[in-house]
Design brief:
By secondary structure, this protein is an alpha/beta fold. Helix content is about 35%, strand content about 15%. The protein has a six-stranded parallel β-sheet with strand order 2-1-3-4-5-6, sandwiched between helices. Strands 9-8-7-10-11-12 form a six-stranded parallel β-sheet, with helices on both faces. Helix 3 runs parallel beside helix 4, helix 6 packs parallel to helix 7 and helix 6 packs parallel to helix 10. The N and C termini lie close together (about 10 Å). The N terminus is likely disordered.
């Protein structure tokens, strides 16, 4: 509290600051320093370079690191943590990814996480299942809503949204062929496959065209969708598959649940731990198309389930929880 009776605003260097997630969780009593503009992107964030801190005079109250440190080596990460210690700037770490979805070999990512966890004044994650994998004392603060105003859809399609085939997405056409045929045999419905039209998806579009011709799936090839269009497309589904090979948590899952859509999730991460209602998220064996079809069929036959809880109240609680952590680690 200031002498004039006002409330001091905490000065936080969030990495990143402008991402939709970090914008959502920000308490009103906090000022986030703006992200740098690096050819239109915020990464690689210069504050992750230890040298950036050595000559700084305008130190923040704390650093909150979410993601964006993929480019660092373990040694670089150790130097970053040491620089914060030397300048007496506390580190808050949110572990979104126990396993990095963009990397097959997790050894270096896990090495960096160990350094950051050792250095952090507060350790946060999104689910109880992830917290159980971290050291004692990790705070669990759930993922906030993604869709504030969900369209009133009541769709019955069964879909998978592949976008541009990121590194953790299953790309084998055989997986989708078996999945689509099994789904069609059980429900009479084609699998709705959404892909971006670009060089990375061309082979899959070509290979799946025969399944479309046979009526087992519908290929929906498109450019990246604006949020409203995407929400309508997802909302037209009763169930959606997350076709991931690795990872930990998913904003896509939260978006589906905001829209009342059931989600089939792989057992490789902590996705099932994000469920607002255990009936709304069904696990399958990672990479197994028959098991993925089983999960989708169950969700489709069960029907849509609205989000179980109060997203407005949850968001207020999420922001308050972050404010409390920031105050504790900064001494303010």
């Amino acid at each position: 509290m200031r002498a004039d009776g006002g409330v001091d605003t905490l000065d936080v260097l969030s990495i990143p600051a402008g991402h939709v997630y970090t914008q959502a969780i920000r308490p009103s009593q906090v000022t986030y320093r703006p992200d740098p503009d690096i050819d239109g992107q915020w990464w690689p964030h210069p504050a992750l370079d230890a040298d950036w801190w050595h000559a700084r005079t305008d130190l923040p109250d704390l650093v909150h690191l979410h993601f964006g440190f993929d480019h660092l080596s373990v040694a670089d990460t150790r130097a970053f943590a040491q620089a914060l210690r030397e300048r007496n700037v506390p580190l808050v770490l949110t572990v979104h990814d126990l396993d990095n979805p963009h990397q097959v070999d997790q050894a270096e990512h896990h090495g960096k996480l160990r350094v950051l966890l050792d250095a952090a004044a507060a350790r946060l994650t999104l689910t109880d299942t992830a917290a159980a994998r971290l050291r004692p004392g990790a705070h669990v603060i759930p993922h906030p809503r993604v869709v504030a105003d969900a369209p009133a859809n009541a769709g019955t399609a069964v879909g998978v949204f592949l976008k541009s085939l990121r590194a953790n997405v299953i790309t084998d056409p055989v997986f989708y062929r078996i999945l689509a045929r099994t789904l069609h045999r059980a429900t009479g419905r084609p699998l709705s496959v959404h892909l971006h039209e670009d060089a990375r998806t061309a082979h899959l579009i070509h290979d799946l065209a025969r399944e479309q011709a046979a009526g087992f799936l519908e290929l929906r090839v498109h450019s990246p969708m604006p949020d409203e269009t995407l929400h309508r497309a997802v909302g037209n589904c009763s169930a959606v598959l997350l076709p991931y090979l690795r990872g930990t948590h998913s904003g896509w899952l939260e978006m589906c649940r905001d829209l009342g859509v059931g989600v089939a999730v792989p057992d490789c991460g902590m996705y099932a731990g994000q469920a607002d209602d255990p009936r709304a998220v069904r696990e399958y064996a990672t990479g197994d198309p028959l098991d993925a079809a089983r999960a989708l069929i169950h969700l489709h036959e069960q029907g849509r389930l609205p989000y179980a809880g109060d997203r407005e109240r949850q968001l207020a609680e999420i922001r308050q929880a972050h404010l409390q952590v920031y105050r504790e680690v900064s001494g303010r």
